[in-house]
Amino acid sequence: MIIPLFKTHYSIGKSILSLDSSPDLEDSGPDSVIDLAIKNNLSDLFLLEESFMGFLEAKKSCEDNGINFIFGLILNFCDDVSKINEDIKTVPSYKINIFSKSAVGCQILYKIYSRCHCSQKKVIDLNILSEYWDNQHLSMCIPFYDSFLYKNLFSFDIFCPNFSDFSPVFFLEKKGLPHDAFLTDAINSYASKNNFPTQEVHTIYYKEDKDFEAFLSYKLICSRGSFGGFKSSLEKPNLDHMSSDEFSFESYLQRL
Q: What distance in Å separates the CA atoms of residue 78 and residue 87, rounded to the nearest whole number?
């Protein structure tokens, strides 16, 4: 089974999908995650965002349409928050996805999110996370891209997370990028050695493959024409993972 992971415009600069659901929406308007779920008979909607901004809207739309809503947040982690120098501008970090399993889980997740964003650098560590953790109500998932393994392999970082208090699931993706096979091998090896499960997923930022250029244009607008200190354009976007146009719902359906 491949799990579709949707992201919406509430994660600013990350998606051109909306949460609007109405028969009166114009064809020229933004594509709706809710409409995609309804039209394709998705019983579960996995929404993975970078904030709580669209949570209530998504929850209500799913309840109104009989869809099981699973909400997750992407958070920035470092090895030890207490060792961060206040003068440092950028803290080396990696991503972890945390999903709620229940209403109680959503409340705990909001506390974790608030704790993270109360920090000036907007990062937490696993020691802080363990203060809130509840396996009954929360699930930890390690993303395919931007995880500690990805950063260690391709950014020459040396992250050493201790997952003794958690039971993470490691996500696997196939986006046709040159390093995907190498990263997949590394993830499978790490998960196998530590008895952690893996799960194939498909991250979705737009509806159809042809929407890639619109999505790319939106990202460039949000980055104000520069990314990582480099000037960006449609011909040379300088955006990570943007050499693949397979972050679409259409691509997900083709993989089933």
A: 16
Residues 6 or more apart in contact with residue 32 via CB below 8 angstroms: 17, 18, 19, 20, 21, 25
Chain centroid offset of residue 252 CA: 16
Q: Which helix (H) or strand (E) holds 252?
A: helix 249-255
User: What's 134-168 look like in SS3?
Assistant: CCCCEEEEECCCCCHHHHHHHCCCCCCCCCCCCCC
Q: Which two structure tokens, joined as six digits, stand for 155?
A: 């950014």
What three-state secondary structure class fits 31? coil
Cβ 97 vs Cβ 76: under 8 Å: no
pLDDT at 205: 95
Residue 222 has pLDDT above 50, yes or no: yes
Closest CA to 10 of 45, 48, 59, 66: 48
Separation CA 38–CA 64 (nearest Å): 11
* Residue partners of 162: CB distance under 8 A and separation at least 6: 126
pLDDT exceeds cutoff 60 at 201? yes
